[in-house]
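Holo model, pyridoxal-5'-phosphate. Inputs:
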Amino acid sequence: MLDKIKQTDPEVYELIEAEIARQKGGLEMIPSENHTSSSVLEALGSRLTDKYSEGYPGKRYYAGNQVIDKIENLAINRAKKAFSVPHANVQVYSGSPANTAVYLAVCELGDKVMGLDLPDGGHLTHGWKINISGRYFKRVPYHVKEDGYIDFEEVRALAQEHKPKLIWCGATAYVREFPFEEFAKIADEVGAYFVADIAHIAGLIIAGAHVSPAPYAHIITTTTHKTLRGPRGAMIMVTERGLEKDPELADKIDAAVFPRGVQGGPHNHQTAAIAVALGETMTPEFSEYGKQIVANAKALAAALIDKGVKLVSGGTDNHMMLVDLTKYGVGNGIFVQEALDMAGITVNKNTIPKDPGSPFYPSGVRIGTPAITTRGMKEKEMEQIAGWIAAIIEEVKDYQLPKGKEARAAYLKEFDDATSKNETILSIKKEVTQLAENFPLPQ
Ligand SMILES: *Cc1c(COP(=O)(O)O)cnc(C)c1O
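Output:
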């Protein structure tokens, strides 16, 4: 695929090849990542990127959109079918602008909005302090309990007290099934819009491996590049319930995306790639894939627990788990993330509920199975991977993050030097590469 760029721009070519080699030789275990099919990549790399098409099918501000209209309508119809919803906007560039468009569609400046707090697993766009959502709207964060499940008593009490305009259910780091039905009840009690953000679990929902929010939410937002296994992108959907609550909701969402809000011309190559990815999800293979993601996550979680690793909530219902490292010290997620990366296992440091550290130096790591399941790995490989992860945690558990900024930088440098020479980590890296090479990236 890269024949031309190899001739015309070897500098960029080398870098792309280096990244492909990194992906091939290691295990991508960041829960929000995946490997797309060659068909998705071909759509993304197509001439469609050349076309301007501000507006929506049949209502464009530019000529020459006969074909683009058909492509966008195809993506819309596939999205409606995949999620059983009456309206879908497939133009939003990515998950964060999609969520910002929802505020624009249904909120006024200063309205109260409720979402899961970021340190508890919520997303930046659900009302975090530094984000537009927390600065232009009044944030009312809710939390998870000690056991890792959403604290419903708190959600209901806060909703009753504040009467928010909008309530989010969705997260970037939550390992249990989302209780959409209970949220709908609370939102109805206080007259709020209920928005389900299924960015992480969209693929699981289509595969039948997670309950769907379609019967409960008014609006559903999702990314298309996580378990859905499409290009980077997003969608905003309006449900039957949403249209009952507000018959103009679909128009409000579309207008918030363009022209009132977050973008100009749609990325048509991305829209086509979303259509391709949605097409791929409507197959028995995808349904098996979604179920295997969860089976793999459960197997990995059980094997890690068996090896003495502590997990938030004691396991998982979905595609990810959160390792709780607090027993080794505050903010140790960075050491485990870096040491695993050195061994070719890519995860990300993440806060855990009631984290004594900070979002930049959290006391946990987040591990997910969507990408390695795409490569065909099963329970047997999870057992092997759990052994490596547990061994590496054991190797770095005594490192303690110093307090001052400069002391930290020096210490992390020392840590990197030591881990890059660590025999255990180096020998695990060899085994990781071997496993990865036996499970090629998708065609
Ligand atoms: C990933 C994610 C987003 C944002 O997606 P981007 O495409 O990175 O902007 C929004 N909400 C949730 C819950 C997510 O996990």
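The pocket of pyridoxal-5'-phosphate is lined by residues 32, 94-96, 99, 123, 125, 170-172, 197, 199-200, 223, 234 (CB under 6 Å). The radius of gyration is 22 Å.
Archived with the compound record.
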